[in-house]
Request: fold
Amino acid sequence: MGKTMSVNGIRLEQVAPYVWEIPAVKDMLVPGRIYGDQETVDHLVEDVRAGKEWNALVQIVNVATLPGIVKASLAMADVHPGYGFAIGGVAAFDVEEGVISAAGVGYDINCGVRTLKTLLTPEEIADKQDKLSDTLYRTVPAGLGSTGDIHLTKREVDEVLLKGARFSLERGYGIASDLDFVEERGCVEDADPEAVSKRAKEREGRQVGTLGSGNHYLEVQVVEEIYDPQAADTYGLFPNQVLVSIHSGSRGLGHQIGEDYIKVLVQAAQKYGIQLPDRDLACAPFRSPEGQNYYGAMNAGINCAFANRQALAHLARLAFQRTLGTRPEDMPTLYEVGHNNAKVEYHEVDGQLRQLIVHRKGATRAFGPGRKELPERYRAVGQPVLVGGTMGTASFILHGTQLGMEATFGSALHGAGRVMSRNQAKKQYWGEDVIKGLRDQGIIIRAHSKAGVAEEAPGAYKDVEQVVNVMHNAGIIRKVAKVRPWICVKG
Reply:
């Protein structure tokens, strides 16, 4: 190793293949640690040199100054700038001495991915590709401000926030076995609907069972390559298999919780004497009233997202049934996992088991073998890790490792990671051209917004294979399968 780089007083040292550290200096309580190749680090450094006000490298350093942080301020290979806390960032805080930060969760609370399996191959349904894409487009509400068929009363909104996926299941959305293969069985404890504002609840009234916009999608995929046959067999995967992946979150409710609590936590930081290097890093001691209120509201947002994806999975199955005659039970859940949350977990730190509040912002929980939180069927292999790419490249299914448990609190990347802002992408790409170009590759895009397609053009993102290989080669996760897009429904 021994490679070093410096920019504006920030020094990076390569400490292992694909691992770089920023030594703890000045106000940093722990080092920064970045998982990346040379290109990853060069890009981070160049953003600082270019004087970009928003840059992930400074954000990694800033997080390392927050009270009670444990081990390191971590960044996965898909890292890019976010509000205060880099996307692709992971930070764990001691529950007694540390803080909770809305910036470490993000505005789309518990945004995540559910993947459904089928026994189909694309050749068997090739003549139905267009019809299936049309049916999915009509069946699954998507787009900015989209609303669904589930109309909730005020009491029912509170029920969603307490029950999560079980709320949707009890209303006939999904199959009973789904919950066995959803992170937290689709519901977290300590949700507090009373900590959620009236405005946030109003925004949720008709959004359960809707995709939303931005980078959210429903994608029919094909297993292109199997890397680990044993793990793939455990997960029920085979070559050329048709899958369905759903990427969505807590919609307007989660965003409103973020907006509401940024203001609360800015004041709390002042109240408790926490020096914030960036206002967007607003936080409060985890055990404080403000910290517990945000934690309760965030957990309510987590459950909202679980309920949403449970309903979306039902709608996807319904579209397949209408088009292909498949039964819902023919499309079981492979797994569902979120990537914008903060969770109380037990991890070993310096030989001691400690209770931590682990923030994962644009980072996925990736527990290794043996963890009791995992479905029994997967426990010997480790948790499925679902990494979305772009609608023109590929996505990946991986599994967690023991090294990941030790090095990253059982966390990994969540996607490709942007290299271009949404505004930059809209200037460089034209939605209609992107749709036509992908159609020429055999990929059907059904979108509610051509501008949204431009924002999500494959060229606006890093090479997903490259960032996945960084984490795989570093031993944090291991590749199981590569999947390619076949049909993509976008907001």
The longest strand covers residues 477-490. The mean pLDDT is 94. Residues 112-249+305-337+364-490 form a domain with the tRNA-splicing ligase RtcB fold (CATH 3.90.1860.10). Residues 289-324 form the longest helix (36 residues).
